[in-house]
Amino acid sequence: MDLSIFLLQLVAFLDLLAVGLIVPLVPNHIRQLGGNHIYVGLLGSIYSGFQLGSGPLIGSLSDLKGRRTILMLTLLLCAGVYTIMGFISSIAVILILRGMLGLFKQTQLLTKALVPDYESNQQKQSVIYGKMAAISGVGITLGPVIGGHIVEDHPENGFMYIAIIVGFCFLVNSGLVYFLPATNKKTTKETKSKEQDSVLDKIITSSKQSVVELSKIPWAEYWDVFLLKALISFAMAVYFSNYSLYLKTIYELSPKYIGYVISIQGVISSVSSFCIGYINKFYSYDIDYSVRNLHMFILVGVSLMGMILATNVYMFIVCLLPLAVGSAVGRLVSLEMVLTRCKGKHRGTLIGATNSVTSLSGVIAPMVAGFIGQYFGVAYGLYASLFATLLGVALSYQYRRKNKVD
Predict the structure, then answer these.
(1) pLDDT (tens digit, 9 = 90+) per residue, 348-397?
(2) What is the rounded CA–CA span in Å between residue 256 and residue 247?
(3) How far apart are CA 38 and CA 334, in angstroms?
(4) Which value, to the nearest 10 degrees, does the dihedral of the CA atoms of residues 328, 330, 331, 335 take?
């Protein structure tokens, strides 16, 4: 394997290992500082909101100044922010730091964008992306376990130690990116004129073009598909927003065992994604993906119902199995439903709109989960997810009937 690709994969692994170390611990840390559930939800919404807006910004900067340079700088900034977070006891400052991370942390986006710079063969690029996703999955699976053990062994300063370790991981990543070879750019008159354009002008121009393209799409033909995507994204986002607090509050699990449960779900999701091709063989007749969509919502709904009724943590973990499978299938189904209906027209714009629906759910859902947790209790967050899923079942059933008639 080429050294450049190996370094990119190592960067992707360390990035999600670091995220897995600290992110599951942040809600409980906020609670220990005196914050309520609304503050916990606000943390997730701020991060998702800045992520939604920073993608085009960081992407444009990387086009103008070089992906390697921008990746290295953002990693250094994230290293500093995560380290500072471990020494701060002010919730307001932590919220600001969380917003900064949402603005600058685009490691996965930039590492994927760098792959074509070092490998021009498209077939090999697909293999590299697959391996990168698998390696990253290992990082996000190991992180919660390691973080849980450290916090449990050091209850007073555990979060500070984790923040320092995470900051060190990002610092190491910045060093790894530094050793990537510089990519050669052609310095034609056209590229020189583009580089002279300001980043703001580039973003404004791109935004105008996006608005024009979005206006050309007959949204009346796609509203039901996008609503289905919004419902499953919202249900999953609400569920994950209070995940660690739910396990701590309802089952009184320590950080170590919360890490184990999160890792188990990560493994199940990875296996489900890996077996998606095998699952699709059972639905060869389902050309428009309507049956898969209906089954996915039913599976997730049954899983959430089982979690609500679970009397112990072992039953809860068993109920994670259908949820992991359903959410993994759902990620594919919602996209394929859009692409099947559009028949090649406005494909890129529709994919972007689908991603925007997911991002917007990531902004709204944590605040909804925080409000429910504060005024009704953490356990009722699952009811919100179940309600959205049941709406999805009803709508997907109507979608299937409509397609049968057509």
Answers:
(1) 667 667 767 777 888 899 999 999 999 999 889 999 999 999 999 999 88
(2) 11
(3) 30
(4) 150
Query: What pTM was computed for the model?
Result: 0.78
Q: Could you tell me if 78 and 105 are in contact, meaning their C-beta atoms sit under 8 angstroms apart? A: yes
Higher per-residue pLDDT: 348 or 320? 320
CA distance 389 to 401: 18
Taking residues 220-239, report their average pLDDT: 86
